[in-house]
Design brief:
By secondary structure, this protein is α+β, with helices and mostly antiparallel strands. The protein contains eleven helices and five strands, in the order H-H-H-H-H-H-H-H-E-H-E-E-H-E-E-H.
Length: about 400
């Protein structure tokens, strides 16, 4: 049995020192635990010293301390004994359960209980007197009682440790949820800011470039009018977004969020900015009302597609089409694909990312890219937004 060379804990040093001093004091006063033994009282100092040394390793080597301590206590029975030796042994039994392995913590109480029962029965059969039961009680006090106390303390510590770990895990999960919530909110704010402001700023950038590059008073005046209109609308959108950020009600979307009913106004603004836009809305006026998140996502997808067409599309017609099926709304925007002939505004690529995120948040599908058409190559943006759960559609 290897004895680890760990430094004794200061509490163990204190226990060993005080116990040894008390034991020596009791021996000097002639106070012994028993009398009429084979060896004189001086021999009791040897088990006392051994148990004091074992108290130093009660925490670092509990099994070694218990095994050697049991032998020392057995040897102490041949001397007049010392009360301090008995007290140190009970502490060693307690420490073996508290600081030992889980297997030892299970076995020691059982073993000490069986020893207590065996000693009680054995001495009762030997002496054949009721007083022999006291020997069994004393054995239980020395061995079984500290072992069961150690079990209670160990279980309490393990329960406290498990509670601490659960608290740490709960705090970690809460922090992860908080980070995810903050990231989701920042992404939503980024989409709102991009969709609301990019359209107006792109129009301002394009028309200001045209006004600066063309020396035509009429063109400059028209460009300034468009710039002023987009500036006012962009400022209104920014104020609405600031109001949303300052709102403490916890609404996920602004109360004045745009819907498809405002799509005609969006188309007119795009035409004012110089786009040739047509709207093909095949939805029935008497059809079911779309959920607010679907209407907002569809509006933002059309808005961002028109912004991209204004910045990047070649001259030609831009087509916006809306098709509503029993369980989905399909939004499709096509624009001429090629190098634009006029001034263009820089892009960051965040628009396509925002449209895809909006679609995926609703469980829909999104696609974008060039494709062939009878009128040549066009840039196609297509989003399918679910409007009802699958089971509702099946019932319908």
């Amino acid at each position: 049995m290897a004895l680890p060379l760990a430094r004794p804990h200061r509490v163990d040093v204190l226990i060993a020192s005080v116990s040894l001093l008390c034991g020596v004091g009791l021996w000097a006063l002639g106070l012994h635990a028993q009398t009429d033994r084979l060896l004189s009282s001086t021999w009791a100092l040897i088990p006392l010293s051994v148990l004091a040394c074992l108290s130093l390793v009660r925490r670092t080597a509990p099994r070694f301390a218990l095994c050697v301590g049991t032998l020392a206590l057995a040897a102490d029975q041949f001397t007049n004994g010392n009360l301090a030796s008995i007290m140190m042994y009970t502490d060693i039994v307690y420490a073996a359960v508290v600081y030992g392995s889980p297997a030892a913590a299970r076995r020691i109480p059982v073993t000490t209980g069986l020893v207590t029962v065996a000693v009680t029965i054995g001495f009762l059969a030997w002496f054949q007197k009721p007083e022999a039961v006291l020997i069994g009680v004393l054995t239980g006090v020395i061995s079984f009682a500290p072992a069961t106390t150690g079990v209670l303390v160990r279980n309490h510590r393990e329960a406290a440790e498990a509670a601490r770990l659960r608290a740490e895990q709960t705090a970690l999960l809460a922090e992860m949820d908080r980070v995810q919530a903050v990231s989701a909110e920042r992404a939503r704010m980024a989409r709102e800011l991009h969709d609301m402001v990019a359209n107006h700023l792109s129009a301002i950038a394009i028309h200001s470039t045209a006004a600066l590059s063309l020396d035509d008073p009429a063109t400059s005046k028209d460009a300034l009018a468009v710039i002023r209109e987009n500036s006012v609308e962009g400022l209104a959108e920014m104020r609405r977004l600031i109001g949303l950020l300052r709102d403490q009600t916890g609404d996920l979307e602004p109360s004045a969020a745009p819907t498809l009913a405002a799509l005609s106004t969006l188309i007119e603004n795009a035409r004012t900015n110089g786009l040739d836009v047509t709207l093909d809305d095949t939805r029935s006026p008497d059809g079911p009302k779309l959920p607010a998140p679907v209407e907002l996502a569809a509006y933002r997808i059309v808005q961002e597609s028109l912004t991209n067409a204004l910045k990047h599309a070649s001259p030609g017609r831009v087509t916006v089409s809306l098709t509503q099926r029993p369980r989905a709304l399909t939004v499709r925007v096509t624009s001429p694909y090629g190098d634009p002939s006029g001034p263009r505004a820089p892009g960051s690529g965040a628009g396509l990312v925002g449209m895809r995120e909006r679609t995926e948040l609703l469980g829909g599908t999104f696609g974008s890219g060039p494709e062939s058409s009878p009128d040549g190559t066009v840039w196609n943006v297509s989003a399918t937004l679910p409007v009802a759960p699958a089971d509702e559609g099946a019932d319908a």
